[in-house]
Amino acid sequence: MSPAPPAPAPEPTPSVEVVEPQDDSDDETVKDEHSDDDQPPAFPALSSAQRAGPSSVPRILTDTELMPPPPQPSLASRNPGLSAPKSSGSNLLALPPSTTKPPVRPSSKREKVALAPGYGPLDWAKLKSSGQNLRGVDMLLRVPPSELKKHNKLDDAWTAINGKVYNITRYLPFHPGGEKELMRVAGRDGTKLFMLTHAWVNADFMLDSCMVGFLTSEPL
Ligand code: HEM
């Protein structure tokens, strides 16, 4: 067995020599042109709270340091059942004030008239499908406003609704709003008034058997 080779001499411990910059100017932004540009910034930042020590770290407040809770509302300050009369003593069980408004009477503009016996909606439906000629004409016409204007009497009333011209003469006593109101559109385009009064009414269906033709512009 050969003797072990002599152990190598221990290397001297490397020491770091801190070299203070010679220039004692405070300006840190001025760099030597040969300095390393890839140097990352210090982390945590030099001004960071983590470096400053535990005293600056926010801590959780104890119960006694917190703001006290608001006082409990006393029963006397509550006031349910405002509508209950004061004399009723305890009003704790009173109903809350109602938000329901009393019904408003419809304006006189929309008054329903009493129809004569035999002139109800069903009677009109029966007459409509009876096969009687309610149009007063034999074929559908092109009706200019000047022609429409001529039919504005109780015994000869035409009106136009949504471009269609109807002979409303026979419908007059059946109209739930009354003859007088219906006559307001006789001899003219009644679309606007009709829609303003009851856009939900299906005039096209109500008056289909009274159709006279189509409203046109005046011939040139
Ligand atoms: C020309 C075609 C018209 C037809 C087919 C017609 C048809 C009707 C119908 C079916 C009702 C009952 C509606 C319901 O109960 O909801 C009604 C009610 C009424 N209509 Fe007419 N109407 C016509 C034109 C007019 C016009 C031009 C007026 C004028 C303002 C008028 C005024 C009224 C009024 C005041 C009522 C009753 C109020 C109501 O029911 O709310 N109608 N009409």
TrEMBL record:
The keyword Metal-binding applies. One of its GO terms (molecular function) is heme binding. Pfam families: Cyt-b5. It comes from the Eukaryota. SMART domains: Cyt-b5 (SM01117). Residues 140-216 form the Cytochrome b5 heme-binding domain. One of its GO terms (cellular component) is cytoplasm. InterPro entries: Cyt_B5-like_heme/steroid-bd (IPR001199), Cyt_B5-like_heme/steroid_sf (IPR036400), Cyt_B5_heme-BS (IPR018506), Cytochrome_b5/Flavoprotein_Rdt (IPR051872). PANTHER family: CYTOCHROME B5 REDUCTASE 4, CYTOCHROME B5 REDUCTASE 4 FAMILY MEMBER. Belongs to the cytochrome b5 family. This is Cytochrome b5.
